[in-house]
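Researcher: Re-running this chain for the archive, since the previous output was lost when a drive failed. Same request as before.
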Amino acid sequence: MRTSSMAAAFLASSLAFFAGVCGIARAAEPMAAPAGAESSTSGAPPAPAPAAGGEAQTLAAKASARERPLLSGWFVAPTFATTSFNGKISASPGMRGGIYLDRQFAIGLTASGILNDDTILKDNEVRNVGGYGGVLLQYVLRSNEVVHASVESTVGAGRWCTEIRDGDDDDAGRGDGKEGCIGKNFFVFEPAVNVEVNLARHVRLTAGGGYRFAVAGNGSGPSSRDMDGFVGRAGLLFGSF
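Model: Regenerated structure tokens:
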């Protein structure tokens, strides 16, 4: 019951964080001038407004005006991160993908592995390895600009395996019949801030940092506090933006 209530609290916190960021970003956008507010003393015609719904500017080309639909694109991104986990600097390769709504909101899924100096990956021995994933909610600020920012949060779960067994007797003579991942599950809430660069029409570079909050369940492995940690992540976004 405790882990269920913590998971619900994580989900509520993520939605509140996401809604708050979106509200702040919208409040910071400049308000449009009234239609009749042109200067009466100046005879020059008003300057054309920038194309808010146009194509994104990239390092190779500037934006052009074009109407944008609600479902405005999609993305898939291989990523690599370094993170603190169980008191060690760990590698965290991953993958994420999703869809864009109105070029501002992104909804998708993420998956990341966790490997460190204690990880053993052999044919007959696998120890200290894990991973986590979940639902990605993201808000992109001024995505048409060559360099822009995004804020995101991931809510999900993972599992850490102190050992992976095949059920047979091992070298230590343990014939307890246990097999699979021997470890513990954990819930995750991970907010982050990113900087993105439009390299080309269908390619973006992204880099950012965040913090992983975890609640560990029962079993062998690190505690909740040991699973908490900073995350620095970079990757390439491929898709239609």
